[in-house]
Amino acid sequence: MVLRWAATALVETEKNFQRIMGYKHLWILKSYPDGQEEVASARKAG
Fold first, then answer.
1. Alpha-carbon span 6 to 4, nearest angstrom
2. How far is CA 21 from the centre of its chain?
3. What does the pLDDT read at residue 7?
4. CA–CA separation, 26 vs 13, rounded Å?
5. Would you put residue 18 in left (φ > 0), alpha (ψ -120 to 50) or beta?
6. Number of helical (H) and strand (E) elements in the chain, helices listed first
7. For residue range 7-42, what is the model confidence (pLDDT) as tens digits?
8. What is the tally of structural domains in the chain?
9. What pLDDT does 14 receive?
10. Which pLDDT score, from 0 to 100, does residue 44 have?
11. Which domain, by its residues, includes 29?
12. Residue 10 forms part of a structural domain
């Protein structure tokens, strides 16, 4: 029963969520740090 209450609460709060502006372009932010790991580790070491 607790799982039902939790699921119901999540469904109800989901109605109040707002979509982030520019959400379609978030992949750019995700891909940016992938190429920067080598640069970051070089800065830490040196």
1. 5
2. 13
3. 94
4. 23
5. beta
6. 2, 0
7. 999 999 988 887 777 778 777 777 766 655 555 555
8. 1
9. 87
10. 57
11. 20-46
12. no
> What residue type is 23 in one-letter code?
Y
pLDDT (0 to 100) of residue 38:
57
Kindly state whether residue 42 falls inside one of the protein's structural domains. Answer: yes
Q: Is 5 exposed, middle or buried (0-12, 13-18, 19+ CB in 10 A)?
A: exposed
10 three-state secondary structure: helix
What is the Cα–Cα distance from 42 to 36, expressed in whole angstroms? 10
Residue pointed to by tokens 């190429």 = 35
Asked if the structure places residue 25 within a domain, the reply is: yes
* Pairwise CA distance, residues 6 & 15, whole Å: 15
Cα–Cα dist 35/14, whole Å: 34
Residue type at 24 in one-letter notation: K
**3 found inside a domain:** no
**Burial of 24 (C-beta count, 10 Å sphere; 0-12/13-18/19+):** exposed
